Amino acid sequence: RDLHSFPTRRSSDLALREFDQIARSPLSRASRNFLNVATLVARAALWREESRGAHFRIDYPKPDDQNWRVHSVIRAGTAIYSTPHIDFPPENSPCVQNPAPAPVSNG
After folding, report:
1. Are strands 81-83 and 71-73 parallel, antiparallel or unpaired?
2. What is d(CA 2, CA 26) in angstroms, rounded to the nearest whole number?
């Protein structure tokens, strides 16, 4: 499914059922990662009951700043929630991992 085709609750529910069915198949790591991202986007689209920017829903065609001018937060194993501000750890925090660059192959 095209992620832009979630204009209603029904179509989002259908997409999530399809994603769940696909998730039961043997997938490569890249395909599993893509499916995870698609599922998160679909869940967020279903949860957010408004239209904003590229996120458009036929059943909620207008922005709703009073209720939805927030960040959507999804964490593994939890329900989606909103927050008006996200605090990121400082750059030198042990939470931030800076992997070494991959070696460049010349040939």
Report:
1. antiparallel
2. 21
- pTM of the predicted model as reported, rounded to 2 decimal places: 0.66
d(CA 48, CA 6): 11
* Extended beta strands in the chain, E state: 71-73, 81-83
| Residue 66 CB partners (closer than 8 Å, separation 6+) | none
- Residue 10 Rama label (left phi>0; alpha psi -120 to 50; beta): alpha
Q: Give every CB contact of residue 56 below 8 A, 6+ residues apart in sequence.
A: 4, 7
Residue 52 has a pLDDT of 84
Total residues belonging to the chain = 107
User: Which tens digits make up the pLDDT trace of 66-81?
Assistant: 988 888 888 877 888 8
20: closest CA among 47, 1, 48? 1
Partners of 11 in beta bridges? none
